[in-house]
Amino acid sequence: MKFNVTRRDVLRFAGGAAIGTALSPMPWNLTDDLAIWTQNWSWIPKPPKGERATRTTVCALCPAGCPVEARCIGGLPVALRAANDGAALCPLGMTGHHLPHHPNRLTGAVGITRGERRPAAVTTDMVVRETARAIRSARAGAGSVVVLDTRPGRSGSWAWRRLLAGIDSAVVAAAPGLEGASLASLDTMLDARSQSFGLDLRNARTILSFGAPVAEGWGQLDLAAARESVRLVQVEPMRSRTAESADRWLPARPGTEAAVALAIANVLLAEGLVDTTALSGTDEFDSYLSVIAGFSPDRAAAIAGLAPDEIFATARELASSGPSIVVAGEQPGGGPLGRPAETAIFGLNLLLGNVDREGGIVGRTPLPAPGDDAPLTPLARLDEIPDHSVALVIIDASAGDGVYPWSLVARKLSPKGSLVVALSPFLSGSAARANFAVPTPPYLETIHELPTSFAEPVASIALSAPLLPTRSGAVDPVAFMRSIARAAGLDLAGEWATTESLIRERVARIHRAGSGTVTSPADGSATLVAELSTSDELWDALLAGGRWSAAPSNTMPPRTMRITGGLGTALGELPTRATATPRPTGTLTLVPRATRDTSASAAVSPVLTKLYQESGLRGSTGTAVLNPRTAASLGFAAGRNVRLLTAAGAMRVALMLDEGVMPGVVEIVVAPERSALGEKTAPGARTVLDLLTPGNEQTWSAVDAQLLEG
Amino acid sequence: MPNRGWMTFVVGLGSALALGWVAFPRLQYRTIEQPLQFSHKVHTSEAVGMTCEDCHSLGDDGRFTGLPSMATCEPCHTEPQGQTAEEKRFVDEYVAKGREIEWLVYARQPENVYFSHAPHVGLAGIACARCHGPHGGTDRLRPYQENRLSSYSRDIWGPSPTRLRRAEWQGMKMTDCSSCHDAHGVRQSCLTCHK
Questions:
Q1: Residue A479 is part of a domain; what is its CATH number?
Q2: C-alpha dihedral over A195, A201, A205, A209, to 10 degrees?
Q3: Does A513 fall in a domain?
Q4: CA neighbours within 13 Å on the CB side: how many for A527?
Q5: At CA A21, angle to CA A15 and CA A24, rounded to 5?
Q6: What CATH number does the domain containing A702 carry?
Q7: pLDDT at res. A554
Q8: How many A/B residue pairs have CB atoms within 8 Å?
Q9: CA distance A607 to chain B (A)
Q10: Which of A48, A305, A701, B170, by CA, is between 20 and 30 Å from A152?
C-alpha cells in the first residue's frame, strides 16, 4: 500500500501534536522552569553564601546618624536595623545597603550637556584639569569660587576651606534648605556663628515649633521617649506626622508664620508675661515693639486663619510651662521659612529669656578642627553671594544632598562663563545639574563622618564604618582636593591624603584634648576619653558605632542680642505684604513637600518605589495634592492630569485629593525624584522643583500657583 | 482510506501526549545520588531517641541552622557506630578528615526567595513534616532529582507533573506558600518573601 504524505497530512499531524502538547504538562512545566532558569544566569548578581556576622555602625544617609546593626553574610551587608532597642530605622535607612548597587550610581566621571539624553564619560584627570583652569581664571578676576557643602561641619568641609584659603574670592556655603539652615538667622540675632550654640530640646518642657519636623528626628530629639516631659505646639499648614503628634496644632496658612510669632510676642508683652530688662533700651527693641504693636492676636489670627484664642493660649503656655524653646524649621522639601519669618520666630526666645538657659539656647564648644591652624576660607550663605558673580561652583554631595530649586545656584553663575563640578556617588539630585560629576564612594563603602548636628547642645562626632570595599572608579573627595591643589598650584599643607586620614587627625585631636565620653550603641554605656590610652582606641570605639560627646559647657559668652536681627521695622513687612497684595482669582498657594529621609539623600533604594509610587501611603514626585473642596471649586476630580502654572513655568501633574490639605493650598511632592528611585532620566531634566522660584527672602516654602485644564 | 485524515491527527496527538507525559518528565530531571547514605530512622528510633530539632534547630536569634555541620555529628561518630560500609566511609572520609558533607538539599529555594523557619516553626508551631513530609522516618536518602533547566530540586515542583493528587507536603512553589497563608489568614505581600 502506497502512503503518500501530503501537505494536508502534515497539517493534521501538526494539529494533533499541538493539541496533544497542550494537554500534556510539558509546556506548563517548561514555562515555570524557564522562568527560574532566567534567574540563574551567570551575570545576575547573587548574594554570596558564607559566615553570618553582625556589625554595628552609624547610618550616614541623613545628619541624624542613627546607630545601625548590619547583618552580613559572607561579608556583605544583607539587612540593616536600628542598633538600639526599641528604635526603628526609616525606610531609607532600612534599605541603605541597596544604595551601593543603585542603578544611577556613578561608575566614572561624566560630562553633562543640557539637552543630551545621556552623559558623556570623561576622566577624573580631565575634571581636575578643568577645575584647576576655572580656579586660575577666578584668581585672575573672572569671578568667585564657591563650594556648596551638603553636610557642613565634616572634616571634608574643613579641607575645602583650607584648600581655597589662598583664593580671595572663594567661599564655602551650605547648600540651600539643609536642616538647621534657619539657625543662620539666630547667628545674626546673637552675633555668633551657629557652631557656638545649640538647642537644648531634651530639657525643654514646652517646644513651640514653626514647621520643624520635631517628631520625625529633627534636632536629634526622640520625641516619643520625651513625651511625658515635653509638650509640643506645632505651627504648620500641613497635617504632617509632627502636627499629628503635637499636643496642639495651629494650622496657620502657608507664609503666615511670622504673623503668628509676632502676635504671640504681642500677648507676652501685653500681659506682662516676660521680663524684658535685658532687651529694653536698645534701638532694636524699640523697633521690635513698634512692629509687634501692629500684630494683635485678632489681626494675626485673621491673616493666619486661626482662632485668636489659640494664639493667647500658646503665649500663656510658653510663659508658664518653662523652660520653653521656640524653633523655626525647614519643612522637608519645602526649605527654610525665610529670614524675616525666622527672625520673628527666634525673637520669641530672646523675649522669653531662653538664651544661655537649660532647656533653651545653650553654648557649645565646636568640634576640634582636623588640621593645622592656618587661615581658612570664610563661610558664607548662598544668598549673600552676588548674582552672576561665580566662575566655579563645586558641589560636595559626597556625604548627602539637599532638595532645593536649582535657580538658587544658577542665578549666581557668571554669564561670562562658569563651571559646576559635583562630587556625588549618584547621577541624581545636585550632581545631575552639574557640568561634570565625579563619583565618590557611597554609604557603607567608605568612612562617613557624622559631626555635631545643628541642634545638639554639646559637640559630638560619630563615624559610619565601611562594610564593603570601595568600588573601582570611586574617587575619595580629599584625594580629589589634593589633585586640584597640585593642578592649580594651591598650598595644601598636612600629611592627610584621604578622607579617612583627615578624620583620623580630628579623632587624634579629640583624644589629645582628653575630654568627653564615648557612648556605646549596644548598651548605652559611656567611657571617658581620658581612660583611653591611645587615639586608636577612640577610633575603634567610634568605628564600632560609638558616639563621642563633649562635656557640657552650657555657658555662653556675653553677647549683644539683636531681637530684629538688624531688620528693624522691616520685620513686619513680610506678613503685612502677604495679605496686602491682591492675588488673581483662582490662585493657590503651592507648598513643596517631601519626607525627611528622602530630602537628605540623592538616591533611595529602588525597592522603595513600592512605597513612593505604588502604595499610596506616600506621594510620588510631581503629584499635586488638593483638598476635595478646593478641587470641587476648580471643577477637578482625583486622578486628573492638569497643568500646574507658576511664575517659573508650567508642568503637567496628576491630582490627588486629601482632606488633610488646607483649602486654597496645593501640595506638591518634590522628592524622591524619579532618578533617585533608579529611573534613567536625562540629567538636568526639569522637575517640579524648577517651578518654585525663591522670593527675595530665599524661601520657596509657599509660592503662588494656578491649576489649569489641559 | 477514508479515515486517513483522522489517523494522522491521532498519530500527532498520541506522539505529543507520549512525549509530554512520558518522555518529558524523564528528560526534565537528572538523578544524582547523595554523597553519603544516611538513616533518619536509626537516629529517630527509640534506641537513639533523637528528634528533628536535635540536628535541625533554631538558634537563639531565630536563625535556622539548616543541615547540621560535622561538629554536630562528631561527638557520637569519632568511631564507626555499627558495621555498615557507609558508616565506615563517613568516619574515614569525613569525620577523621574534618570534611563537611556536601549534601544535596531537597528543599533549597531559588535565590530570590527569602524563607525564615522562625515564624513558621517558632510562632505558628508547624511541624517539620508539614512541609518536608515523613522524612524523619526514612531509612535511606532518596536520590536527588535536579531539574536540568532550573537546577533546583524536584521537591520544589512536587513529584507529579500535573501537581494533582499530591500529598499536602509535596511541592514548595509560591502557590503552595500563598494557599497555606490564605487558608490560615496570614497576611502576605511580595516583600514578605522577595526582598
A1: 3.40.50.740
A2: 90
A3: yes
A4: 17
A5: 145
A6: 2.40.40.20
A7: 56
A8: 98
A9: 8
A10: A701
What is the extent of the structural domain holding A541? 110-178+366-549
Grid coordinates standing for A595? 519626607
Question: Does residue A456 lie within any of the structural domains?
Answer: yes
Per-residue DSSP letter, B189 = -
Strands A665-669 and A110-111: unpaired
β strands within A298-433, DSSP E: 324-328, 361-363, 379-380, 390-396, 419-424
Residues from chain B that touch A39, judged by Cβ atoms under 8 A, are: 110-112
Number of compact structural domains in chain B: 1
Contact (Cβ atoms closer than 8 angstroms) between residue A661 and residue A615: no
- The answer to whether position B86 is within a domain reads no
pLDDT, tens digit, for every residue of B56-113?
A: 888 777 778 788 889 889 999 989 888 889 999 999 999 999 899 999 999 998 878 8
Tell whether A523 and A651 lie within a shared domain: no
Any CB–CB contact under 8 A between B159 and chain A? no
Q: How many domains does chain A have?
A: 3
Residue A344 lies in a domain: no
Express each pLDDT in B147-189 by its tens digit. Answer: 999 889 999 999 988 888 889 899 999 999 999 999 998 888 8
Tell me, what's the pLDDT at A582? Answer: 66
Q: Is residue B88 part of a domain?
A: no
Give the separation between CA B98 and CA B92, rounded to whole angstroms: 10
Contact A37 B190 (CB under 8 A): no
What's the rounded Cα separation, in Å, for the pair A420 and A422? 7
Domain match, A385 and A455 both = yes
Per DSSP, the three-state class of A11 is: helix
A71 to chain B nearest CA, in Å?
Answer: 12
**Is there a domain that residue A647 lies in?**
yes
pLDDT of A574: 66
Tell me, yes or no, whether A588 and A688 share the same domain: yes
Q: What is the pLDDT of residue A271?
A: 95
Choose among A16, A34, A40: nearest Cβ to B10.
Answer: A16
What interface predicted TM-score (ipTM) does this complex get?
0.87
Q: Does B164 touch chain A (CB under 8 A)?
A: no
Residues of chain B with C-beta less than 8 angstroms from the C-beta of A20: 12-17, 19-20
Q: Are A314 and A248 in contact (CB under 8 A)?
A: yes
A588 lies in the same domain as A533: no
User: Hey, what's the cell of B105?
Assistant: 538539599
* Same domain membership, residue A460 and residue A382: yes
Same domain, yes or no: A535 and A600: no
Q: Which chain A residue's Cα is nearest to B154?
A: A33
**A520 and A592 together in one domain:** no
Mutate to test the interface with B, among A1, A3, A4, A26 (most CBs of B within 10 A): A26
pTM of the predicted structure, to 2 decimals: 0.82
Local structure of A580: helix, strand or coil? helix
Contact (CB<8Å) A12/B8: yes
Residues A393 and A515 in one domain: yes
Q: What range defines the domain where residue B62 resides? A: 29-67+103-193
Cell numbers that stand for A499 in this block: 578622607
pLDDT digits (tens, 9 = 90+) for A14-59: 999 999 999 999 999 999 999 888 888 888 877 777 888 899 999 9
**Does any domain span residue B52?**
yes
Residues of chain A with pLDDT under 50: none
The CB density around residue A707, as the number of other CB atoms within 10 Å, is 23
A662-685 as b/e: b if 16+ CB within 10 A: bebbbbbbbbbbbbbbbeebebbe
* Residue B177 in grid coordinates: 506558600
Q: Is residue B81 part of a domain?
A: no
